[in-house]
């Protein structure tokens, strides 16, 4: 990772709402409405954090359908671990993400058409 990417990841993980989203969505996929309730934040705050988390590959996005025929997105945490090593005057950061199940990926790609 570049220094700019390292800074972005650290800044994102320093954000309380981003951490709340990651923790909540690690239990089960959640909609923005559920994340708003669980994280005690406004929808715009949740949407902004989701965008930043997704840009880093920390969230998976799924299209869901309710019984009324409407559709909405749910989000699941993909971030598994961040490891930081400081030694000999330098810092190295490794980000570990869960692999996406091929069937889930196919479904997501099909639903996005």
Automatic annotation (TrEMBL):
Transmembrane segments: none annotated. SUPFAM superfamilies: Winged helix' DNA-binding domain. InterPro entries: ArsR-like_HTH (IPR011991), WH-like_DNA-bd_sf (IPR036388), WH_DNA-bd_sf (IPR036390). It comes from the Archaea. Gene3D superfamilies: Winged helix-like DNA-binding domain superfamily/Winged helix DNA-binding domain. This is Winged helix-turn-helix domain-containing protein.
């Amino acid at each position: 990772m570049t220094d700019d990417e390292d800074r972005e990841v650290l800044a994102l993980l320093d954000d309380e709402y981003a951490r709340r989203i990651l923790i909540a969505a690690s239990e089960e996929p959640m909609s923005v409405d559920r994340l708003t309730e669980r994280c005690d934040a406004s929808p715009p705050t949740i949407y902004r954090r989701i965008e930043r988390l997704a840009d880093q590959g920390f969230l998976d996005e799924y299209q869901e359908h309710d019984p009324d025929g409407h559709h909405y997105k749910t989000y699941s945490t993909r971030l598994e671990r961040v490891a930081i090593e400081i030694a000999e005057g330098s810092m190295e950061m490794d980000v570990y993400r869960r692999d996406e199940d091929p069937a889930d990926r196919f479904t997501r790609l099909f639903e996005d058409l």
